User: Fold this.
Amino acid sequence: RAISPTKKEIWDKLSRIDVAEFLELRGNYLYLPWGSAWDIMMQHYPSIKFYNHLNEAGYPAFFDGCNYAMVRVTVIVDGIEVTEDYMVTDYRNNAIENPDPSDVNDALKRAFVKCCAYFGLGQYLYRGESCPRSTLRQKVNKILENCNKEEFKNITKWAETERVSDMTDTQLKKIIERKGK
Assistant:
């Protein structure tokens, strides 16, 4: 019997994936379509499961007294569960009063993608980043490899470390801005 990965091992694998080629624009927001998220998750964790929680009437949305709704989705990767409550919104992220089934379905898919982000997939998007931290580190490593000794000394002095793995996202981005793309 195979040993299941830990949550950290799942995170380490999925958080390194650059999902930029799959992103779509809805309103003013970039998002990862659920079909692309499912495809990537199946490639790496084919045992993935998910389920939509149902209310007492068997419907996959929970309504408040003003007829706004939330959905709840659970994703399971190798026995590790993540659950997300997600409000039913329009493409400007405004809550929808009396959402129709299409709105509820869209919210369920967004909740699924957000659960995948809790495992690491596309998580950098929720931090407002344009690429995974591992990509930033690769770019900085390449910059440092191509520096002369004086440039290397100045960069690592400014960053207060020679270890790229110890640099913050802000430090990594500043080095890339200063030394080239």
